[in-house]
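REQUEST ID: PR-0412
SUBMITTED BY: lab tech R.K.
PRIORITY: routine
TASK: structure prediction, single protein chain
INPUT:
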Amino acid sequence: MCVHGTPTPPILEPTATPLRDREATIHIIGAATLAVRLTLIHDDGSVALDPTRPLLLGTATTADVRLTDRYASARHARIVAEGKRLVIEDLESTNGTWVDGVRVQRAYLAPGVRVQLGSWRATLVACEPRVRPVPGRLGMIGGSPAFYALERSLLRLAGLPQAVLVRGETGTGKELAARALHTQGPRVTGPFVPLNCGAIPEGLFESELFGHVKGAFTGAVQTKLGKFEAADGGTVFLDEIGEVPLALQSKLLRVIQDREFERVGGRRGVKVDVRIVAATNRNLEDMVARQRFREDLYYRLRVLTLAMPALRERGPADLDQLAAHFLGVFAQRHGKAVLRYSPAARVRLHAHAWPGNIRELENCIESAVVLCNSDTIDLPDLPLPQAEGVPAPTRGKGVGKPAVELGRLSWDEMEKLYIEAALATHGGNRSATAKAMGIGRTTLLRKIGQHGITG
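STATUS: complete
OUTPUT:
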């Protein structure tokens, strides 16, 4: 019989005389420093190793990891920090402590190392610290090729004086991009004034954009500055530019061309120095063809264009970073001790198409945090429509194989999500998971180590 491809250590009955090992510490090539977090993976779960706290393994009730194996000793071994590395020490056990098939008194630990105490086995894997992603200098989060392409375009356009037309689906972060164009450009010390054109009643458009003088109309009891005047020396952001009434578009064109306008009810021209950033999720070319948007205004606005990628185009890594960021933000905001997503919940997040993009994800995570009654967001907490052909989620152990949507994930990403969901389905039991997946337990452990799965 072999364990992980190495000879099985001889097992002695508990009453046998303990063997006194006198070997020096065995140095495992590539032993991990404390900068690398290690997790001990075994059939019944996993244990994250804390370098500030010794970990006792054995059958004693006081053990940190209590073993039920009859061949393990009460105080079998312990894992402690030594300098910048972790070491496992045998505590004069009956059957010894074995590392990669070799009986040791002491051995440094590293990712991939296999440990056996009696007939209890475990594998060490590296676990990167789960730090909540924070926005970068552009105020955005991401790391995908699509995100970096967006970042390069933003930085290239930020220093230019011309108008920019930001295009993209709803919820992709167009206002955030407009702010980045402002903060990374020469107008950063000036004001950034946003205006949602889709939220203004048609009769108030001109007053909102250009202001009015006292007595210009009923209720105009004092002179009011419009958005363009308030943005003088800075940037005005016109969101949903396609909603501007056709009759007002000629006046907007004049501002872009001449940098001058008149307040409602006024007779004196007002000069302004502003950069215009407009955004839309509508097809302006089609609106021009149907004479619902002025062609000359369209060409003035689209001197420079910026395309915002949809969330589905940014890949699963960006989705994970954004989901982790929103989890931290809303847990803090609502005073909830929610720390993570279950593997099944992560699979569901990746399977959803996100037609509302980042805004939809943000709202989804806030709702899940508010509804969650534990430290882990699970399927029932996610306010997402049920995927076709997938049974409704319930708390506790699932039944059957987890569903993972194909096509948008790489093989490694798909395999990792599948293993995480399969482990959740079988309560973390490695043997049962391997059997359900149709692979050997050693193969599963190797894949768990490869993907850095710690749950």
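NOTES: Residues 159 and 176 are 17 Å apart (CA to CA).
REVIEWED BY: pending
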